[in-house]
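Recall that a protein's primary structure is simply its ordered list of amino acids. Everything else, from secondary elements to tertiary packing, is in principle encoded there. The following example makes that idea concrete.
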Amino acid sequence: MSGLLGCTINGKPMFGGSEDPEPAPEASQSSAYTPGSTEPVEESVPSVLEREVECPSDMGLKLGKRKTDTRVRPTVKGNPRRKFAAEHKQPAAESFLLSNEDAVNQVIALEKKRPGLIPAGFRERVAKDPRSAELRIEMALCELQSDETRRRASHDAAMAVLLGAEEAASMELLEETLKPGQKTSSGCTRGPCDEGQTCDPKHKTCETSTTRALRWISAAELDVEHILTRAFVRQVVESGDPKHPLLPWGKTRRHRCGNGKAICKFTDYERSGGRVDFVHWDLREGGTSMGFNEEQADWFRKHCKPGSHTECDEEQPW
Protein backbone atom coordinates (compact mmCIF):
# COMPACT_ATOMS: atom_id res chain seq x y z
CA MET A 1 0.00 0.00 0.00
CA SER A 2 2.80 2.42 0.86
CA GLY A 3 4.26 1.95 -2.61
CA LEU A 4 1.35 3.85 -4.12
CA LEU A 5 1.87 7.00 -2.10
CA GLY A 6 3.49 10.04 -3.69
CA CYS A 7 1.99 9.32 -7.11
CA THR A 8 -0.34 11.31 -9.29
CA ILE A 9 -3.44 10.94 -11.43
CA ASN A 10 -2.99 12.46 -14.88
CA GLY A 11 0.12 14.17 -13.60
CA LYS A 12 -1.71 16.02 -10.81
CA PRO A 13 -1.43 15.17 -7.08
CA MET A 14 -4.78 14.28 -5.48
CA PHE A 15 -3.75 15.52 -2.04
CA GLY A 16 -0.71 16.81 -0.21
CA GLY A 17 1.01 14.29 2.02
CA SER A 18 2.56 15.00 5.38
CA GLU A 19 4.52 12.88 7.80
CA ASP A 20 2.66 11.37 10.72
CA PRO A 21 3.33 13.03 14.08
CA GLU A 22 5.94 11.33 16.22
CA PRO A 23 4.16 8.92 18.57
CA ALA A 24 4.56 9.04 22.31
CA PRO A 25 6.89 6.33 23.63
CA GLU A 26 4.10 4.24 25.12
CA ALA A 27 1.35 5.01 22.60
CA SER A 28 -0.07 2.25 20.42
CA GLN A 29 0.32 2.26 16.67
CA SER A 30 -3.25 3.53 16.31
CA SER A 31 -2.65 6.51 18.62
CA ALA A 32 -0.63 9.72 18.40
CA TYR A 33 0.80 11.98 21.10
CA THR A 34 -0.70 15.42 21.62
CA PRO A 35 1.71 17.99 23.16
CA GLY A 36 0.56 19.13 26.58
CA SER A 37 -1.54 16.01 27.14
CA THR A 38 -0.78 12.79 28.93
CA GLU A 39 -3.45 10.88 26.97
CA PRO A 40 -2.88 9.51 23.46
CA VAL A 41 -5.52 10.46 20.90
CA GLU A 42 -6.77 8.38 18.03
CA GLU A 43 -4.87 8.96 14.82
CA SER A 44 -6.95 9.69 11.73
CA VAL A 45 -6.63 7.19 8.90
CA PRO A 46 -6.50 8.64 5.37
CA SER A 47 -9.36 7.67 3.10
CA VAL A 48 -8.53 5.20 0.34
CA LEU A 49 -10.20 7.68 -2.00
CA GLU A 50 -7.39 10.15 -1.24
CA ARG A 51 -4.69 7.67 -2.17
CA GLU A 52 -2.46 8.84 -5.01
CA VAL A 53 -2.09 6.47 -7.94
CA GLU A 54 -0.22 6.66 -11.23
CA CYS A 55 -2.87 5.99 -13.87
CA PRO A 56 -1.93 4.75 -17.36
CA SER A 57 -2.54 7.13 -20.22
CA ASP A 58 -4.56 4.46 -22.06
CA MET A 59 -7.60 3.43 -20.02
CA GLY A 60 -9.55 2.23 -23.05
CA LEU A 61 -11.78 -0.84 -22.96
CA LYS A 62 -12.62 -3.17 -25.84
CA LEU A 63 -16.03 -4.61 -25.07
CA GLY A 64 -18.18 -4.49 -28.15
CA LYS A 65 -21.49 -2.67 -28.02
CA ARG A 66 -22.96 -1.69 -24.68
CA LYS A 67 -26.57 -2.34 -25.59
CA THR A 68 -28.01 -3.73 -22.34
CA ASP A 69 -30.07 -1.20 -20.40
CA THR A 70 -29.70 -1.92 -16.67
CA ARG A 71 -32.74 0.05 -15.55
CA VAL A 72 -36.05 -1.41 -14.45
CA ARG A 73 -38.61 -1.24 -17.24
CA PRO A 74 -40.88 1.83 -17.10
CA THR A 75 -44.35 1.54 -15.64
CA VAL A 76 -46.76 0.33 -18.32
CA LYS A 77 -50.48 0.73 -18.91
CA GLY A 78 -53.03 -2.03 -19.21
CA ASN A 79 -53.07 -5.66 -18.19
CA PRO A 80 -50.65 -6.37 -15.32
CA ARG A 81 -50.60 -10.10 -16.14
CA ARG A 82 -47.17 -10.63 -17.66
CA LYS A 83 -44.68 -13.47 -17.55
CA PHE A 84 -41.34 -12.98 -15.84
CA ALA A 85 -38.31 -15.08 -14.94
CA ALA A 86 -39.05 -18.00 -12.62
CA GLU A 87 -36.76 -16.43 -9.99
CA HIS A 88 -38.75 -13.17 -9.95
CA LYS A 89 -39.64 -12.21 -6.36
CA GLN A 90 -37.89 -15.32 -5.03
CA PRO A 91 -34.90 -15.43 -2.65
CA ALA A 92 -31.63 -16.75 -4.04
CA ALA A 93 -31.55 -20.54 -4.25
CA GLU A 94 -28.53 -22.36 -2.88
CA SER A 95 -27.51 -23.28 -6.43
CA PHE A 96 -27.19 -19.57 -7.26
CA LEU A 97 -24.68 -18.85 -4.50
CA LEU A 98 -20.94 -18.93 -5.17
CA SER A 99 -17.89 -19.02 -2.92
CA ASN A 100 -15.39 -16.16 -2.95
CA GLU A 101 -12.69 -18.42 -4.39
CA ASP A 102 -14.90 -19.71 -7.19
CA ALA A 103 -16.03 -16.19 -8.06
CA VAL A 104 -12.46 -14.91 -8.26
CA ASN A 105 -11.43 -17.87 -10.42
CA GLN A 106 -14.36 -17.34 -12.79
CA VAL A 107 -13.75 -13.61 -13.17
CA ILE A 108 -10.05 -14.16 -13.87
CA ALA A 109 -10.91 -16.81 -16.45
CA LEU A 110 -13.36 -14.44 -18.11
CA GLU A 111 -10.80 -11.61 -18.15
CA LYS A 112 -8.26 -13.95 -19.74
CA LYS A 113 -10.79 -14.85 -22.41
CA ARG A 114 -11.93 -11.24 -22.88
CA PRO A 115 -8.89 -9.02 -22.11
CA GLY A 116 -10.79 -6.00 -23.44
CA LEU A 117 -12.67 -5.99 -20.12
CA ILE A 118 -9.48 -4.58 -18.57
CA PRO A 119 -8.26 -1.04 -19.32
CA ALA A 120 -5.45 -1.25 -21.89
CA GLY A 121 -2.82 0.29 -19.62
CA PHE A 122 -3.41 -2.35 -16.93
CA ARG A 123 -3.71 -5.50 -19.05
CA GLU A 124 -0.07 -6.57 -18.82
CA ARG A 125 0.04 -6.12 -15.04
CA VAL A 126 -3.23 -8.01 -14.53
CA ALA A 127 -1.99 -10.85 -16.73
CA LYS A 128 1.07 -11.19 -14.49
CA ASP A 129 -0.73 -10.84 -11.15
CA PRO A 130 -4.51 -11.15 -11.48
CA ARG A 131 -4.95 -11.93 -7.76
CA SER A 132 -3.36 -8.78 -6.39
CA ALA A 133 -5.91 -6.99 -4.21
CA GLU A 134 -3.75 -3.86 -4.17
CA LEU A 135 -3.61 -3.79 -7.97
CA ARG A 136 -7.39 -4.05 -8.09
CA ILE A 137 -7.70 -1.07 -5.73
CA GLU A 138 -5.29 0.94 -7.86
CA MET A 139 -7.28 0.07 -10.98
CA ALA A 140 -10.59 1.03 -9.40
CA LEU A 141 -9.24 4.42 -8.31
CA CYS A 142 -8.14 5.11 -11.89
CA GLU A 143 -11.37 3.80 -13.38
CA LEU A 144 -13.42 6.17 -11.22
CA GLN A 145 -11.96 9.09 -13.17
CA SER A 146 -13.86 8.38 -16.40
CA ASP A 147 -17.50 7.76 -17.36
CA GLU A 148 -16.39 4.94 -19.66
CA THR A 149 -14.70 2.98 -16.88
CA ARG A 150 -16.69 4.05 -13.81
CA ARG A 151 -18.88 0.94 -13.75
CA ARG A 152 -15.78 -1.20 -14.30
CA ALA A 153 -14.39 0.41 -11.13
CA SER A 154 -17.05 -1.41 -9.10
CA HIS A 155 -15.90 -4.73 -10.58
CA ASP A 156 -12.29 -4.19 -9.50
CA ALA A 157 -13.35 -2.89 -6.08
CA ALA A 158 -15.45 -6.05 -5.69
CA MET A 159 -12.49 -8.19 -6.68
CA ALA A 160 -10.37 -6.43 -4.06
CA VAL A 161 -12.97 -7.32 -1.42
CA LEU A 162 -13.07 -10.97 -2.51
CA LEU A 163 -9.27 -11.15 -2.65
CA GLY A 164 -9.00 -10.10 0.99
CA ALA A 165 -7.95 -6.45 0.78
CA GLU A 166 -8.00 -4.45 4.01
CA GLU A 167 -11.70 -4.34 4.87
CA ALA A 168 -12.20 -0.66 5.71
CA ALA A 169 -10.41 0.55 2.59
CA SER A 170 -11.92 -1.94 0.15
CA MET A 171 -15.47 -1.45 1.44
CA GLU A 172 -15.14 2.33 1.33
CA LEU A 173 -13.95 2.07 -2.26
CA LEU A 174 -16.73 -0.35 -3.21
CA GLU A 175 -19.34 1.98 -1.73
CA GLU A 176 -17.97 4.89 -3.76
CA THR A 177 -17.97 2.93 -7.01
CA LEU A 178 -21.65 2.03 -6.58
CA LYS A 179 -22.73 5.66 -6.47
CA PRO A 180 -24.30 7.11 -9.64
CA GLY A 181 -21.60 9.76 -9.88
CA GLN A 182 -23.82 12.80 -10.37
CA LYS A 183 -27.13 13.88 -8.88
CA THR A 184 -30.01 14.39 -11.27
CA SER A 185 -33.45 15.94 -11.15
CA SER A 186 -36.20 13.57 -10.06
CA GLY A 187 -37.94 13.43 -13.42
CA CYS A 188 -39.20 15.31 -16.42
CA THR A 189 -42.89 14.43 -16.63
CA ARG A 190 -44.03 17.88 -15.51
CA GLY A 191 -41.14 20.10 -16.43
CA PRO A 192 -37.66 20.33 -17.94
CA CYS A 193 -34.54 18.86 -16.41
CA ASP A 194 -31.92 20.95 -14.66
CA GLU A 195 -29.19 22.59 -16.70
CA GLY A 196 -26.71 20.09 -18.12
CA GLN A 197 -29.21 17.22 -18.01
CA THR A 198 -31.41 15.67 -20.69
CA CYS A 199 -34.80 13.96 -20.48
CA ASP A 200 -34.96 10.28 -21.34
CA PRO A 201 -38.11 9.97 -23.48
CA LYS A 202 -38.83 6.37 -22.45
CA HIS A 203 -38.35 6.52 -18.70
CA LYS A 204 -39.13 10.23 -18.29
CA THR A 205 -36.08 10.65 -16.08
CA CYS A 206 -33.35 13.28 -16.16
CA GLU A 207 -29.86 12.11 -17.06
CA THR A 208 -26.31 13.37 -17.10
CA SER A 209 -23.50 12.05 -19.27
CA THR A 210 -22.35 9.94 -16.32
CA THR A 211 -25.71 8.37 -15.53
CA ARG A 212 -26.23 7.57 -19.21
CA ALA A 213 -22.85 5.87 -19.42
CA LEU A 214 -23.44 3.85 -16.27
CA ARG A 215 -26.78 2.36 -17.27
CA TRP A 216 -25.56 0.69 -20.48
CA ILE A 217 -23.33 -2.39 -20.26
CA SER A 218 -22.02 -5.04 -22.61
CA ALA A 219 -22.76 -8.75 -22.41
CA ALA A 220 -19.27 -9.44 -21.07
CA GLU A 221 -19.66 -6.85 -18.30
CA LEU A 222 -23.00 -8.42 -17.35
CA ASP A 223 -21.22 -11.78 -17.09
CA VAL A 224 -18.72 -10.26 -14.63
CA GLU A 225 -21.48 -8.71 -12.52
CA HIS A 226 -23.40 -12.00 -12.53
CA ILE A 227 -20.40 -13.84 -11.05
CA LEU A 228 -19.64 -11.20 -8.43
CA THR A 229 -23.30 -10.96 -7.44
CA ARG A 230 -23.47 -14.69 -6.75
CA ALA A 231 -20.57 -14.39 -4.29
CA PHE A 232 -21.80 -11.25 -2.54
CA VAL A 233 -25.38 -12.46 -2.19
CA ARG A 234 -24.05 -15.64 -0.62
CA GLN A 235 -22.43 -13.53 2.10
CA VAL A 236 -25.65 -11.58 2.61
CA VAL A 237 -27.75 -14.75 2.84
CA GLU A 238 -25.37 -16.54 5.18
CA SER A 239 -25.09 -13.54 7.50
CA GLY A 240 -28.85 -13.06 7.93
CA ASP A 241 -28.07 -9.36 8.45
CA PRO A 242 -30.84 -7.11 7.00
CA LYS A 243 -28.31 -4.26 6.88
CA HIS A 244 -25.35 -6.15 5.46
CA PRO A 245 -22.86 -3.76 3.78
CA LEU A 246 -22.96 -5.79 0.56
CA LEU A 247 -26.71 -5.32 0.06
CA PRO A 248 -26.17 -2.26 -2.19
CA TRP A 249 -24.20 -4.38 -4.67
CA GLY A 250 -27.15 -6.68 -5.28
CA LYS A 251 -29.49 -3.72 -5.68
CA THR A 252 -27.33 -1.65 -8.05
CA ARG A 253 -25.59 -4.34 -10.11
CA ARG A 254 -27.22 -6.90 -12.40
CA HIS A 255 -27.25 -10.65 -12.94
CA ARG A 256 -28.77 -13.08 -15.39
CA CYS A 257 -32.01 -14.90 -14.61
CA GLY A 258 -34.73 -16.80 -16.47
CA ASN A 259 -32.24 -19.37 -17.80
CA GLY A 260 -30.03 -16.53 -18.99
CA LYS A 261 -32.75 -14.92 -21.10
CA ALA A 262 -33.62 -12.14 -18.64
CA ILE A 263 -31.78 -9.66 -16.42
CA CYS A 264 -32.48 -9.26 -12.72
CA LYS A 265 -31.33 -7.26 -9.75
CA PHE A 266 -31.87 -7.97 -6.05
CA THR A 267 -34.23 -5.92 -3.93
CA ASP A 268 -36.13 -5.95 -0.64
CA TYR A 269 -39.66 -7.24 -1.18
CA GLU A 270 -42.34 -6.98 1.49
CA ARG A 271 -44.80 -9.85 1.45
CA SER A 272 -48.23 -10.12 3.02
CA GLY A 273 -47.83 -10.14 6.78
CA GLY A 274 -44.91 -7.73 6.71
CA ARG A 275 -42.08 -10.18 6.08
CA VAL A 276 -39.32 -8.68 3.93
CA ASP A 277 -37.23 -10.93 1.69
CA PHE A 278 -34.15 -10.11 -0.38
CA VAL A 279 -35.26 -11.37 -3.79
CA HIS A 280 -34.47 -11.48 -7.49
CA TRP A 281 -36.34 -8.78 -9.41
CA ASP A 282 -36.89 -9.13 -13.17
CA LEU A 283 -36.07 -5.77 -14.77
CA ARG A 284 -39.06 -6.20 -17.09
CA GLU A 285 -41.35 -5.75 -14.09
CA GLY A 286 -41.84 -2.02 -13.75
CA GLY A 287 -45.38 -2.11 -12.39
CA THR A 288 -48.57 -0.70 -13.89
CA SER A 289 -50.03 2.81 -14.05
CA MET A 290 -53.39 1.83 -12.52
CA GLY A 291 -52.56 3.17 -9.07
CA PHE A 292 -51.50 -0.13 -7.49
CA ASN A 293 -48.22 -0.97 -5.85
CA GLU A 294 -46.30 -4.09 -6.85
CA GLU A 295 -47.86 -6.32 -4.18
CA GLN A 296 -51.37 -5.23 -5.19
CA ALA A 297 -50.63 -5.78 -8.88
CA ASP A 298 -49.35 -9.25 -8.01
CA TRP A 299 -52.61 -9.98 -6.13
CA PHE A 300 -54.66 -9.00 -9.20
CA ARG A 301 -52.58 -11.29 -11.41
CA LYS A 302 -53.31 -14.24 -9.14
CA HIS A 303 -56.99 -13.66 -8.32
CA CYS A 304 -58.64 -11.72 -11.16
CA LYS A 305 -59.52 -12.25 -14.79
CA PRO A 306 -56.96 -10.80 -17.20
CA GLY A 307 -57.33 -7.03 -17.45
CA SER A 308 -59.97 -6.84 -14.68
CA HIS A 309 -59.74 -5.51 -11.15
CA THR A 310 -63.34 -6.33 -10.21
CA GLU A 311 -63.90 -9.89 -11.49
CA CYS A 312 -61.84 -11.66 -8.87
CA ASP A 313 -62.18 -14.93 -6.95
CA GLU A 314 -61.59 -13.20 -3.60
CA GLU A 315 -62.33 -9.88 -2.01
CA GLN A 316 -59.46 -7.42 -2.14
CA PRO A 317 -57.49 -7.71 1.14
CA TRP A 318 -56.86 -3.94 1.48
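The CA atoms of residues 99 and 231 lie 6 Å apart. Residues 254-309 form one domain.
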